[in-house]
Amino acid sequence: MEQIFDTYFQRLVGKVDRSSxxxxxxxxxxGGILAKDTADSEDIPxxxxxxxxxxxxxxxxxxxxxxxSGEYTVVSTPIVIDLQVIAVILIEAINLKxxxxxxxxxxxxxxxYIEYHNTQEEVFTEVSREEAIIKELLAVSSYDLGKQSLSHxxxxxxxxxxxxxxxxxxxxxxxxxxxTNSYFNINLDLGYESSVEAFKDKGVEIIKANKxxxxxxxxxxxxxxxxxxxxxxxxxxxVGKLYYALDNICKAMISDLEEAKIFTxxxxxxxxxxxxxxxxxxxxxxENTIRLGSxxxxxxxxxxxxxxxxxxxxxxxxxxxxxxxxxSVLDKLTKADGNIDLELLYVAExxxxxxxxxxxxxxxxxxxxxxxxxxxxxxxxITGLNPExxxxxxxxxxxxxxxxxxxxxxxxKAY
Amino acid sequence: MVREEMTSRERVLAAFNGxxxxxxxxxxxxxxxxxxxxxxxxxxxxxxxxxxHAMAALAAAGRDLFGFDSVMPYFSIHLEAAALGCEIDxxxxxRMPQILxxxxxxxxxxxxxxxxxxxxxxxxLLQAIKLLRKKYGTEVAIIGKVVGPWxxxxxxxxxxxxxxxxxxxxxxxxxxxxxLMQTSIEFAHAQFDAGADILTWADxxxxxxxxxxxxxxxxxxxxxxxxxxxxxxxxxxxHSCGLVADRxxxxxxxxxxxxxxxxxxxxxxxxxIANNRMVMTGNINNPSTLLNGTAADVxxxxxxxxxxxxxxxxxxCALPCWVPNRNLLEIVNAARTQPNK
Lengths: 415, 341
Prior knowledge:
The structure holds two protein chains of two kinds.
Chain A lengths: L1 H12 L7 E7 L5 E4 L9 H9 L10 E4 L4 E9 L2 E10 L2 H31 L2 H10 L1 H5 L7 H9 L7 E11 L3 E2 L2 E2 L4 H17 L9 E6 L2 E8 L5 H19 L5 E11 L5 H18 L12 H7 L3 H15 L8 H12 L4 H8 L3 H15 L7 H24 L1
Antiparallel strand pairs in A: 1-2, 1-5, 3-4, 4-5, 6-10, 6-11, 7-8, 9-10
Helix pairs in contact in A: 1-3, 10-15, 11-15, 12-13, 12-14, 12-15, 13-14
Chain B lengths: L7 H10 L17 H7 L5 H4 L1 H13 L5 E2 L7 H5 L3 E3 L8 E4 L18 H17 L4 E7 L1 H9 L1 H10 L1 H25 L3 E5 L9 H18 L6 E4 L8 H5 L5 E4 L5 H8 L4 E6 L1 H6 L3 H14 L3 E4 L9 H12 L5
Parallel strand pairs in B: 1-4, 4-5, 5-6, 6-7, 7-8, 8-9
Antiparallel strand pairs in B: 2-3
Helix pairs in contact in B: 2-4, 4-6, 6-9, 7-8, 7-9, 8-9, 9-10, 14-15
């Protein structure tokens, strides 16, 4: 409260036309001075302050009180928040009428500001500390505006909460997918929703209790179905080892979460970075790993880059490669009806996956060896790509197949 | 019935034994060295880390200048590490030592030197304890200190490496602790034999580095074993920095007689958890109260700690060297005005 009176009040009185008054003061209910317009202005005598406070009419908290002792003409009014008088404004007036207007404006401004300030405080205490931090770290504006945009307030909070700003950190993302039962083609709630909410909080508690987490780690919901863990690491001089440690942590988390079976969990982590500025980047990488995992991996659970290296490379392929190289292959594979010859592409992909071994490819696809041979030959003729002679061609085939699968998945999701 | 005037040593031991004492004791389980005290005693860092006479002289300042009920001559946490081959930067007047190189790659590589107790930094501390015992007789409580196997493993293998191993190669962490705890036990016995009344066991199982579950998995069984080995030697104060509320129950199961806690912890909650199983000491804030606070701030901190029910007053951790001596004196002055227990 003192801070409000110190800073906001000073800014406010700086805008007041002072020709009609001598001084402005804010006092507490017991008469103590909380703020003055200028440090060197003369104090209003304490007996006048007390008389004004005594004259307060609690039935009319919008009142303006006048006190004219001869030497001092004082206009005053209470500052009221939630029907409680929290302070009193006093103006030693020269022009009474002008001072009535000024004191009304001051009161309204201060009350509005204090109410707003209090609401913000409540919001912060209602939302957990971690949740507030995570939401700010992941806020798009913080990231898009560049590295210097993490607010001073947030950095100060992180420091005051004891977070070491110089540890390495990675985001582990846990996506919660509700297991639903559809009866007779309709979704029946059957009291599910309330249990779901309770289990969400339990999920956070379970993760917080994971043995690999310590006080430097942050765990909270980032939205209704994602739990974010900002995991810290000491620098061991080999960041690669830390990714293997992350694999263990994710596996342990999935195992811990077995307790809360109401959800299916998808878990992945992003890159390890040395500053809080890059937390959002790590979050996006974790999110993409889950997305790619759910397209290309059969079992849900822990997704990691090394389970789908080509898929990750395909996802992060530079646009120029995608537009120039991949699109050109797809154009060549497009049939007269406008559709891509996916069968040919997937046979070629399987051929690459099987290290250009015809027998193995045939076995995988449940086709005759000669059929595979003919299809591969056709593919070579159409696209000009020969994976047996050129690794780059094999790589292009793989990237093209991945690109098609990702597009199909995106379109499916869109519908 | 309590004697009207107890000696400092009697007062401190009474607090450990749970018997009546005349005035609340003021002790220092960790370093009380300040630049002012160094100037007064002419025992300066870094020499006072490894020279027995300088160690004893600087430790004595706590008693002679401020009237603390204890003296403690081990100011850093690096003597064992130095004796076991770590490369150390011994710091300077106002900076504590630090490890430059950790030599131990694998737990199997560790061999306990047969002459461990005769190695220079170890011998210096034992000699300093003897000098203090000679100086004070049974007047003052002498506190020794050892670094526990967890912190020693940080020093010898590297903190980051050890923490990573809890995840990647937990069996090796168990091995490290098993081989290193013998060092701590041997050094602890030697300090009691040299004249220490009490021992601080510094093992940084801090919440900023490991979870309570990790403490339970790796360290609790080791601490229980160590305490069993030291059962008859004398009381041991466990020191670990940071927030400990989530692991204090486990600390109580470790067998330590006392816990030295940081001011970030709620002392009332800690006493409630401990439920007389451990004596609580510490909790007077170093940076805000002792380094930057006024005499009134120190008095308030002492009053508040006593009101909360703390049995042994002490600063929360090793003092920053620039703490003004007047604030240390004020701890004792404020303690002496507390009603008798």
